[in-house]
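FIELD: query
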Amino acid sequence: MQTEPAHRRNRRAKGWDRRDRLLQVQVFSEPDPASEFLKEPSAEGEFERQEDAFRELVTSDGSSPYPAAAGRYHLYISLACPWASRTLIVRNLKGLQDAVGVTVVDPIRDDRGWAFGDGPGHTRDPVNGFAFLSEAYVATDRNFEGRVTVPVLWDKQTRRIVNNSEDDICRMFNDVFHAFGNREVDLFPKDIEGEHAKLAAFIYDGLVGRCSLRSMSWRRDWMSTYCFGVWFVVMYAWRRQ
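FIELD: result
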């Protein structure tokens, strides 16, 4: 009886066999016309960010249908997305772990988009039992045809998405949810608001808009150098604080 090689056994135990198969599907297979991947790059191979589909706000003054409340809202994220990870960081820095629940999707996508499932660092959906995050989008707008993105702030009471803009979600966590967390932490100080906005735009344009999904090797090489330059500027700005 033939014994499985140790290196194959280790890769299978860590889930790498599944990742290898998905990579082969994504890179070498003809993509499905409905694939999420086909909606992401431009003709030049750059990542194209779509407009956020849901921009309603949680408020503390009754000016929206979504009042600030502990336990009412749930955050869906992927740790593979830096912008979704930002919302998790803000949630934790503000001490909102008990006020806003969070579920992490599988970081490896197939043509169907972000999926829920048990694995290292990600779980099934305990709130709605969704198999795919796309179900949350369709539950909110049955005619939605855009790309399904993270993060998502979900209202458990109305069973719909409130907001899928990471910047909106971060600001809501910082402002209207402050009563449920650490009031002493202000992650959006007014005195540096202008500088903050410029740096955020620079990071997004440099690290996501230009450095993602490059299809030509010479473009990737050139943009790798550009990315290091962007990080140098970011680190310099951080050390000045």
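FIELD: remark
Residues 6-30 form one domain.
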